[in-house]
Amino acid sequence: MAIKVTSGPPSAAEREEVVINAAWRNCESGIDPKLSHNLYDDLGFMDLDLVEFVMEIEDELKIDIEDQKMEAFATLQDVLDEVNRLLLS
Fold it and tell me: Along the 89 residues of the chain, how does pLDDT read in single tens digits?
């Protein structure tokens, strides 16, 4: 589901939905992603999966996540925290 940003940043619920849905589309594990899930251990991400996942979020929310930040992500909450920082700062 695409979030259309018309004025101001998307709501907290919309930002979370973007992250969770992108994880679901990119994970290998077949489980429903939760913010507490580890990208690698729980969701089965490999390096390319992470890149595609982040690119999907960047495209949908019109943000740019630095490679250095992306490499530090461990959980979906880490990703959401960075999304929030970029959109709300």
Answer: 555 545 677 999 999 999 999 999 998 788 899 999 999 999 999 999 999 999 999 999 999 999 999 999 999 999 999 999 999 98
Take residue 78 and report the two structure tokens written for it.
Answer: 């880490």
Query: Which residue type is seen at 75?
Result: T
Greatest distance between any 2 Cα atoms in the chain:
37
82 occurs within a structural domain: yes
The answer to the question of residue 3 being in a domain is no
Number of domains in the chain: 1
84 sits in which H/E element: helix 76-88
Instruction: Show Cβ contacts of residue 84 under 8 Å, excluding neighbours closer than 6 positions.
Output: 12, 15
Range(s) of the domain holding residue 76: 12-88
Does the residue 78 lie in any domain? yes
Confirm whether 2 is domain-assigned: no
Say what angle helices 76-88 and 12-26 make with each other, to 10 degrees: 140
